[in-house]
Every structure is written in structure tokens, then in C-alpha cells.
Amino acid sequence: MKYSAFALASLLISTAAFAEEDRTGWPDSFTVATASQGGTYFAYGSGWANLVAEELGLTGGGEVTGGPGQNMALVHTGDTQFGMTTMGPAAEAIRGESPIAPGLQMTNACAMFPMYQTPFSVTALSSSGITSISEIPDGARIGFGPAGSTSDTYFPRMMETLGVNFDRRNGSWSDLGGQLQDGLIDVIAFAAGVPVPAVSQLEVQTDVNIIEFTEEEQATIMEAFPVAQFDIAADTYTTLTEDARSVSMWNFAIANCDLPESFVHAVVDIIMSDNERMVNIHRAARSTIPENWDKNNGVIAWHPGAARWFIENAGADIPADQIHGG
């Protein structure tokens, strides 16, 4: 969403004024739980953490974590103020079914703002000859990202559903990229916002195949898992010559539900009022726009400060029973 120069200036001025007038209960510093280095979460999360810290005059930054599942736990307990999660792991955590802490219903992590869709994609070296899911050899060593991440939670099950037999490997995206180049693994199954930094780096250093799902594979995955149809645009990677068929899952930023309403409202205002600034942090932020508030679909209770921003600025129809404490 773009604003006129006058409107944007007014928004930024009002944010600064608001922040100066009411900081009751605000923390002096904050942390955003992200994921492993080399992945989109780390780049995107560290970027908006630095932006908010600068705008509000606070100390803040991103923290390397195990990804969405662990982030739900860290934000729920208040070990970090903010984090990022995908909707599948979030739903499991709220039901008390997270492998991170089975039985713990993580209901003190609140929705803050929509981020972007996480496509599920497969990458192999061109020298491997693997150009499709069906060509992945029996017993292939597949890197699924950090243990407990969205990719590690869902992609092995997706591969099994598609009849792929594999040797499961875990690690940070940057580490797995190095292992792929060195021949220590055969395939990387990425679930991360695009462009994935590790894939972009691989493209610079070697020839890779970015493998899409067939229409039948896509339909099978969509029926079995909480994902939607998605196309990775051809201009995302230099390797692609046309859009690549994929599936995706939405990501949301989350906040500890006990944070002051005014604080979370101010943070959301900074993130959502200037999309161009967010896109400069990471191209995936093209989807970090107010009208995507509805992608929460009632999965995560809204933080009152975030809900107020979207109701006031995006015409969001958020029922009171979907707002924490409502």
C-alpha cells in the first residue's frame, strides 16, 4: 500500500508524537525471535526489529532461533517480546500440540501483523540431474532446515505423501547450502519466504535446479495439509525462466499478549504505514500490507493494540472474541 508524501509524513509524525505522549509500561528494549541465519525469517525479522528500534528510540534486534514453533514458545512465555510464525505451527501450539512443549497451550502469543506467504520449494544441484520430485532417488539425503522449523515440521510429511523415501537431515539454511555444494546432501526442501537468501547465494556460486510441483502433486499436498496454491514468480531467482508451481502457508508477526496496547499499536503503525520501507528490508514484504489482516482466519487471538490499528486503518472486521481479553 502506498501513501502520498503528505499522508506518509502525517503518519510518521503522528507515530512519533504518540510514542512520546504515552509510553506507560513500555520496555526499554525488545527482541524479535526469528530463525536460522541464511533464511528469510532472520533477514526480515532483524530488519523490522532494527526499523522499530530506530523509529521508537529503543534498543531492539533479531534473535536466531529454531523458527516458528520455538518462536511461539518464546513469545508465549515472554522470553522475547516479539516473534514470527507460520499459521500451521501456530495452530498446533495454541492447541497444545507443539513438539516444542506438548500439552502447553500457547495462548499468550498474540497476532500482530501479516507478513508474507511461505512457499514450499525444492532445490538440487543441476549436476544431480534431479528436475522433478519423482526423480529424487530412493534414500536421497534431504535437508529440511532447522529442527522444529515449519519446513522440518511439514516438508518431510509432504515428501512421504508424494512417495519419496529419504534420509532426513537438519541444519541452518546457510549450512545446508554449503552441504549441498559439497555433495554431503542431495536436495534441500525449503519452506521460507522468497527469495530465500541461501538459494540466491547458491545461484551465484553454482548451477541449481529449482524444482516445482506438478499439478497433481500440488493438488495432493493441498488436500492433505493447511496450505494454499502459490506460484514462485519467475523474477524471484535468476535460475527461473517461468513461474514455478508451489504451495504456501501464511506467516504472521506475533507479540506477547501482556505487552502494553500503546506499544504494540505504535510498532504496527511503523511496519504497516510504509510498505516501500519494508520491501527494502526484504522483497517478501510486498505482502506485508494492511488488507492481508484477514489471513489470520481466527487462528491466533489478536493483540488489542494490533486489532485497534487494523480496525482504524484497514477497516478490519475483527470480532471481539478474536481479540485477546475481549
From TrEMBL:
Record Gene3D superfamilies: Periplasmic binding protein-like II
Pfam families reported for this sequence: NMT1_3
Signal peptide as annotated in the record: 1-19
Keywords: Signal
Protein name per UniProt: TAXI family TRAP transporter solute-binding subunit
Source organism per UniProt: Roseobacter sinensis
